[in-house]
Amino acid sequence: MKVLLVTKQILSVREGRVYSQFALSSTLEIFQRFGSLYVCACRDDRESTQPVDTVTCLDAAHVAFLDSEKGLKKRFFDRRHNKETIRRFAKEVDMVIGYVPASVSDLAFRVAREEKKPYMTFLVACVWDGMWHHRNWKARLMAPIEFRATRHTVLHSQYAWYVTEQFLQQRYPTRGKSLGCTDTNIPEELSDILTRRMLHIDDNDGSLTLLTVGHLDVGFKGQQFIIRALPKLLAKGVNVRLQMIGAGKGDHLMQLAHTLHVQHCVETLGKCTRAQVLQYMDQADVYVQASLQEGLPRSVAEAMSRAMPVVGSRTGGIPEMIDAAFVTRRKNVDDIVQAVLAMNKDTMRQQATRNFEVSHRYLPSQVNARVNEFFETIKREQKG
After folding, report:
1. Number of H helices, E strands in the chain
2. What is the pLDDT of residues 67-79, one digit of tens each?
3. For residues 230 and 241, what is the distance between their CA atoms, to the nearest angstrom?
4. Could you report the per-residue pLDDT of 176-220, keeping only the tens digit for each?
5. Residue 179: strand pairing partners
6. For residue 374, what are the CA distances in angstroms to 120, 177, 232, 262, 285?
7. Residue of 353, 350, 348, 351 whose CA lies nearest to 203
8. Are strands 54-55 and 119-123 parallel, antiparallel or unpaired?
9. 279 vs 143: CA distance, rounded Å
10. Residue 184 CB neighbour total at 10 angstroms
């Protein structure tokens, strides 16, 4: 079976090889289970959250590049190139898949209908949360339009794959057949991680290193709320520091830290490879995700797989993952403070054990069976 994946994420073709971010590479591998995979994506000419340095199994001849649709002109009036590019591959395949949210995926849905091809939405996040809480006012202006477009696309898809169990399904229902299952790719080998975490907790000297992962300039990843929590934690006698991983300059975040006189407690680590992210997770004490937009965040699942205690906002699929006692109200700095203050050694041991055990839900051996069954259903229906 031939399928086309349309996404605003980034690919790069160098010397005949196709490269992607690590997170996207595992998604590409999953969709290759259909048979032959074609991809329309953006070029590696803009800033991405992670390095575009992972070699994929894609055939370079099966990759076509789209123009970015940032801005009203590109979104509504200058789409000929993207539409023709998507249509060229859509004619060759048996099904079109849209990586949602993305305006190019909404365009792909229309092309699929025109070409009478079945369509599957792969829904990874809430477009409303991401755009409404964006730092750019133009993005906030577009939020209602993109929300309605995404709801329409998902509603009328023949198939929908949600990365959450409940949240995205409730906000973006479908009339088609659906799967609620993460595509997070955690290594199967987790043998001594919990033991090492317990030693790390026991050896703690009373200081506390918080870690968060997310683009530094978008606003909806919520780092600003963690920074606002730092002076309150310091006032309580907590020797705390914050490490932030992610692309972007983060100037507004560091300016906030300076304003609050906690710049000495804040460190930006920039874009990191997956191996580097896991290394920082092993060295830090508590993972904090104060996001205003998420699907089922890979970084939270990875932190749990490293047996990290986790504090997270009531956003997207985060409450489906972590202990309810450490789910904070969105934008609520005091909730973050109280959750971090509760992280004594006994609590950290309990949360480390709990999160490590729950992370096994996201192992490939647990996920693959459900995904394969869903794909086989699709294949049978399309052959019939």
Report:
1. 16, 15
2. 888 776 777 778 9
3. 8
4. 999 998 877 777 676 799 999 999 999 988 899 999 999 999 889
5. 161
6. 12, 9, 48, 49, 38
7. 348
8. unpaired
9. 36
10. 24
